[in-house]
Automatic annotation (TrEMBL):
Function statement: F(1)F(0) ATP synthase produces ATP from ADP in the presence of a proton or sodium gradient. F-type ATPases consist of two structural domains, F(1) containing the extramembraneous catalytic core and F(0) containing the membrane proton channel, linked together by a central stalk and a peripheral stalk. During catalysis, ATP synthesis in the catalytic domain of F(1) is coupled via a rotary mechanism of the central stalk subunits to proton translocation.
Topology versus the membrane: Peripheral membrane protein
Pfam family, one: OSCP
Keyword tRNA processing: no
Gene: atpH
Listed PANTHER family: ATP SYNTHASE DELTA CHAIN
Classification of source organism: Bacteria, Pseudomonadati, Planctomycetota, Planctomycetia, Gemmatales
Protein name per Swiss-Prot or TrEMBL: ATP synthase subunit delta
GO molecular function: proton-transporting ATP synthase activity, rotational mechanism
Length: 198
């Protein structure tokens, strides 16, 4: 059983490495043609507007039982509006049976582009959408503490009730009302138990 787990883990690691190799190659080409941001935006658009709205497109491209030749027309159609470096990369991925890397490649490319530009992605979860003023205040505060330009990725989660959860890489700052209530509940349960035991 451990061998199966290890092979799945190895496959995940190798997929991650492959995605990084392709993303770095694409970034190098994008830098030469001064299209770094344009290509990143187009990749994000494909994930958001094609893969997210038409999951059958991604499933078709990832299906190993469908031949490369059968995938070519859909690739041309789905990515027709993309820059030439993206279309060329997709052709290479198709030839190497690696179209399943597109989503992770796009994420790695975004991270590499942000690093190059001195930006840092910050996921901000709130119970209600943040106003432009709140986002700008948060950006200013984070910029001072991080010494980097934060890119705020807002996520609305009504179950937070109030407050924010700010995630910067592996760091999480949780000021949500939901967490405060859970902490208070745990403290009350613990105190209640200690009173009973006395």
């Amino acid at each position: 059983m451990a061998n199966v787990h290890d092979s799945v883990l190895d496959e995940g690691v190798s997929r991650s490495r492959l995605a990084r190799v392709y993303a770095e190659a694409l970034l190098a080409v994008a830098a030469k043609t001064n299209q770094r941001d344009e290509i990143g935006d187009q990749l994000d658009d494909v994930i958001r507007n094609v893969f997210a709205t038409k999951p059958e497109v991604e499933a078709f491209l990832n299906n190993p039982t469908i031949s490369k030749r059968q995938k070519e027309p859909l690739l041309r159609e789905a990515f027709a509006g993309c820059a030439e470096p993206i279309r060329n990369l997709l052709g290479v991925l198709n030839q190497n049976n690696r179209l399943g890397l597109v989503r992770s490649l796009a994420a790695v490319y975004r991270d590499l582009r942000d690093q190059h530009a001195g930006r840092l992605r910050v996921t901000v979860k709130s119970a209600v959408p943040l106003s432009d003023e709140q986002v700008n205040q948060l950006k200013a505060t984070l910029e001072k503490s991080l010494n980097k330009s934060p890119v705020i990725v807002p996520v609305v989660e009504p179950e937070l009730i109030g407050g924010l959860i700010v995630q910067i890489g592996d760091r999480v700052i949780d000021t949500s009302v939901r967490t405060r209530i859970q902490t208070l509940r745990a403290q009350l349960m613990e105190r209640g138990t200690s009173y009973v035991l006395q």
